[in-house]
Design brief:
Elements (H helix, E strand, L loop, with lengths): L18 E3 L5 E3 L8 H68 L18 E7 L4 E6 L6 E4 L3 E3 L5
Antiparallel strand pairs: 1-2, 3-4, 4-5, 5-6
């Protein structure tokens, strides 16, 4: 014969999970023989995934940083070389235009629109001075140092006099 439980009997039922002492000094319920709650398992998996994502991201940033540190000098040297070659080509074009102008009119000009030269490139090439005997060009690249040109001295980083 079975007895029916009443509300008062719930209080006297034996505890399945007895409190145990934790080394950290905390009392907690023992989970021995019980499965973990689904919500707690989800939280633990989420925490592990988040940690793994952070570690992977940090590793990727370290690899990219080291790669950039090693590649930057090579890339910057190639860019400066390319820009310098482009600037020298533009200066040569303007100098050839000045020589053609001198052959036609007997002097040099400070007005670039009078020269038969292709349009400006990315660099700023200006005619600084011109007279009947000589001219001076200044080239200001996107990156790097300014370059000056006169027919008598050629390319130089010193301003024309």
């Amino acid at each position: 014969m079975e007895q029916q439980e009443t509300a008062g009997d719930e209080f006297f039922r034996p505890v399945k999970r007895a409190p145990t002492f934790d080394p950290a000094g905390q009392y907690r319920r023992s989970m021995a023989g019980q499965t973990e709650a689904p919500e707690a398992a989800r939280k633990r998996r989420r925490r592990r995934r988040r940690t793994l994502t952070r570690i992977t991201t940090l590793g990727l940033l370290v690899v990219l940083g080291v790669g950039g540190y090693l590649a930057y000098p090579t890339v910057s040297t190639k860019v400066l070389t390319f820009v310098r070659e482009d600037l020298v080509q533009e200066i040569d074009d303007v100098a050839a235009g000045e020589q053609n102008f001198h052959a036609l009119y007997g002097g040099f000009t400070t007005d670039r629109s009078q020269l038969t030269v292709a349009k400006d490139g990315f660099n700023d090439v200006r005619i600084v001075s011109a007279d009947g005997r000589n001219f001076c060009l200044a080239g200001d690249p996107l990156v790097g140092e300014k370059v000056y040109y006169t027919p008598s001295t050629g390319l130089s980083e010193k301003p024309c006099v």
